[in-house]
Amino acid sequence: MSKIQIEQLSKRFVKRDKYIEALKDITLTIKQGEFVCLLGPSGCGKTTLLRILANLEKPSTGDVIINQTDKKKPLQSMVFQENGVIPWLTVEENVAFGLKMRHLSNDFVKERTEYYLQKVGLSKFRRLYPKELSGGMKQRVSIARAFANDPEILLMDEPFAALDEQNKFILQEELLAIWQETRKTVLFITHSIDEALLLSDRILLMSAQPGKIIKDVAIEMNRPRSIEKVRSDPEMTKIFLDIWEQLQSEVKQTRLK
Ligand SMILES: Nc1ncnc2c1ncn2[C@@H]1O[C@H](COP(=O)(O)OP(=O)(O)OP(=O)(O)O)[C@@H](O)[C@H]1O
């Protein structure tokens, strides 16, 4: 069943007296429960596409349809690279925030909050404020909140980009464990091919500006995956090199513009 349908989408921005063609003719279907990573050179329009899906930006032309199965659920939740937590709320209050806004029963909010705090290993830090947390802990709060909201789709914009390698691997595996349980439809932006290979059912590669989808690769490796398995698998190495070459050529084009 299709969860997200994008038809002939283009986006132009006006900057001073010039047009910037950020996205061009994007047509795409994402299935219910699919984990899709979006890769592409800097400035190719990845965040713009995510913002359109989050209804923070309107397409210039074309349509976006998110297939809503439950009207009581939010359509989407977003996780950003940084600053996604509310500084004056505790860890627990941050995770519960979306649920409280929907006026759900206190017992339900408490149970869901507790569940996701445990999933990301933050139960004993529940009373801390964001300024008392490390970068990795803050991202865990954002992930817990996004999943606790139980949205129709999850939009993640380089959520691990600011973390050190070790923390990144741990959070990637935690995210996969929660995703495998919930089977949310996820659209995840990354600059890392390794990250995309580890996480995705499918990788979409975008061209240099104006952003178009130039490659759509199914990643069929069995789950659960680990970075060690991904790096030692010959098929994954082949896909890595293929995407690497194409990405390099798109990055070079960006530099020539
Ligand atoms: N509100 C805006 N007004 C004008 N131009 C914009 C606006 N938002 C984005 N752009 C332009 O649209 C293009 C795509 O930007 P976007 O942030 O979507 O790219 P990106 O692929 O996410 O980049 P990065 O990988 O560096 O985060 C860029 O040229 C950017 O300058």
TrEMBL record:
The keyword Repeat does not apply. PROSITE patterns: ABC_TRANSPORTER_1, ABC_TRANSPORTER_2. Keywords: ATP-binding, Nucleotide-binding, Translocase, Transport. Pfam families: ABC_tran (PF00005). It comes from the Bacteria. SUPFAM superfamilies: P-loop containing nucleoside triphosphate hydrolases. This is NitT/TauT family transport system ATP-binding protein. The lineage of its organism: Bacteria, Bacillati, Bacillota, Bacilli, Bacillales.
